[in-house]
Amino acid sequence: MGYEILGLPLIYYITMVAKTVAVFVFVLLTVAYATWAERKLIGHMQVRIGPKRVGPYGLLQPIADGLKLFFKEEIVPAQASRFAFLIAPLVALVPAFISFAVIPFGDTVTIAGYQVPLQIASVYDGTSMRVLDINVGVLYILAMASVGVYGIVLAGWASNSKYSLLGGLRSSAQMISYELAAGLAIILVFMSSETLSLHKIVAEQAGLFGWNIFRNPFMFAGGIIFFICSLAEINRTPFDLPEAETELVSGFCTEYSSMKYAMFFMAEYANMVTVCAVTTTLFLGGWHGPFPPVVNFVAKVYGLIFVCMWIRATYPRYRYDQLMRLGWKVFLPATLLLICGNAVWLLVFP
Amino acid sequence: MILPLLNGLRITLSHLFRKPVTLQYPKERPEVAPDFRGLHALKMSHDRARCVACHLCPTVCPAKCITVEAGEDANHDKFAARYEIDMLRCIFCGYCVEACPVDALRMTQTFELANYRREDFVFVKERLQEKN
Fold first, then answer.
1. Which of A142, A196, A207, A189 is nearest to A283 (CA)?
2. pLDDT greater than 90 at residue A190
3. What is the model's pTM?
4. Would strands A4-5 and B40-42 be described as parallel, antiparallel, or unpaired?
5. What is the mean pLDDT of the segment spanning A205-224?
6. Residue B105 in 3-state DSSP?
7. Do residue A44 and residue B12 have CB atoms under 8 angstroms apart?
8. A-chain residues within 8 Å CB-CB of B12?
9. Which residues of A touch B5 (CB under 8 A)?
10. By CB neighbour count within 10 A (0-12 exposed, 13-18 middle, 19+ buried), where does B74 fall?
């Protein structure tokens, strides 16, 4: 069909750019309005109102906050390791966004006679009539989630401040403790779907009780544990020890100001969106549901974001030893047991 | 172990649907109690303050914030030539109102007593007198 560049039709490039831009805008807007929604929601849960002065219902608040941070003074501490200090916010922010490359927002749509899968890193193969996406999508997400913590550790080390350093150390320790359990919870998904491709994992979960979380009791528990571990991995309450205000001032971002601080903030919220999207993809049936595929997916992601904020409004922060105990002594053995249980279940009810 | 956690979630969710208690203060005003002890007011009778300068209020005042000076009018009646309350010292206990034998003093619902200058916190007789 028409022009070809490097053996691929032009529409391939156009749709690729369009998908990238659309997903990026979606994530950025969600991140901006997640800050507003969180303040509003926690406000109402505390029987307050939350922001309401900037625009109707305070809807322009994220823009006002962004502008304010943009015009703040950039401060680099005198003893800081300058290069690492400047690059840390980027290292934190980029992996948060980059995971979205493999998240399937929907099945395929037909544009100008060309099947376009609603997933950035995938194409529709006309000869085999299948969607080809990155076949290690889950591993890719795990890898990106791990890279994200480098930004925090780097920020903590480069700031040359004891609070920052402790925040960074806590973050890496927390990451290691919870990634194990989260990874083991993902194994439950592999066991039933027998693939690492996110598109195939979602495509398999069709139907009301086809969602992975409803397959069997072990998957149900596994899904919940995965979500909680993900919260711990992205340092959200009740696991926000790296920036524990009462102990560490502001943790790893104590010395950061202006846009660099805003980038950490954005990374935190983008991570939250990513984690909710990954949980939706792996356990909650991705695009399947009563509405058009993309609407289903976005609704599920927003539902999970609501749960994140609800959790934040409810629970106090864990103590450090409690956090470690929960990770190593509760979630890790629990997921191992779930894997054994799931294996038996799959043998008995194939 | 899990039930208390779920109960916590239930409580926060139920609070989400409550009416917020926030008062948009300068726009919305709080309703103070009927016996709220705010700014003092000197009651009027026949267009003059009812106070007879008996000095019971400065005597009973625990904060020593009331200054009264007596004067004599054309009918040889005692009246308060000077009546001042220092609002920076006043503790709004209301003893002055209780002590007054001629019921010349009351406390209003006014609680916004901010001023720009220190001297303005000393309320003189004219500022304390009730306006109709």
1. A189
2. no
3. 0.81
4. unpaired
5. 82
6. strand
7. no
8. 45, 310, 313-314
9. 315
10. exposed
One-letter-per-residue 3-state SS of A59-70: CCHHHHHHHHHH
Architecture of domain B31-128: 2-Layer Sandwich (3.30)
**Which residues of chain B have a CB within 8 Å of the CB of A43?**
20
pLDDT in tens, A33-45: 998 999 999 999 9
Domain positions in chain B = 31-128
Interface with B, mutate which of A42, A44, A325 (most B CBs under 10 A): A44
Q: Domain spans of chain A?
A: 4-348
Q: What is the pLDDT of residues A88-144, one digit of tens each?
A: 888 888 888 888 888 888 777 777 677 777 777 777 776 777 777 778 888 888 888
- Cα B20–B21–B26 angle (5° rounding)? 110
Gap between the Cα atoms of A60 and B83, Å rounded: 53
Q: Looking at the predicted complex, does its ipTM rise above 0.95?
A: no
How many C-beta atoms lie closer than 10 Å to residue B11's C-beta? 11
Q: Tell me if A41 and B16 make a contact (CB, 8 A cut-off).
A: yes
Task: Write the pLDDT tens digit of every residue in A340-349.
Answer: 998 898 888 7
What residues of B are in contact with residue A44 (Cβ under 8 Å)? Answer: 15-16, 18, 20
The candidate with the shortest Cα–Cα distance to A103, out of A327, A278, A263, A245, is A278
Give the integer Cα–Cα distance in Å for B91 and B94: 8
- All residues of chain B having their beta carbon less than 8 Å from the beta carbon of residue A47 are 15, 18-21
Only one residue has tokens 């369009």, namely A18
More confident residue, A313 or A242: A313
Which has the closest alpha carbon to A159: A89, A97, A222, A226? A89
> Which residue of B16, B21, B24 is the best one to mutate when testing the A interface, meaning the one whose CB has the most A CBs within 10 A?
B16
- Checking if the pLDDT of A1 tops 60, the result is no
Q: Do A313 and B12 touch (CB under 8 A)?
A: yes
pLDDT class for A306, splitting at 50, 70, 90?
Answer: very high
Amino acid at A334: A
Nearest CA in chain B to A40: B16
- Look at the block and give the residue holding tokens 């010292």: B89
Helix or strand (DSSP H, E) at A265 = helix A258-282
**Percentage with pLDDT > 70 across chain A:** 97
With b meaning 16 or more CB within 10 Å and e meaning fewer, what string describes B22-59?
Answer: eeeeeeeeeeeeeeebebbbbeeeeeebbbbbbebbbe
Contact A47 B21 (CB under 8 A): yes
Nearest to A45 among B5, B15, B22 (CB): B15
Q: Among all chains, which residue has been given the structure tokens 């509760």?
A: A330
**Residue A45 to residue B20, Cβ atoms within 8 A:** no
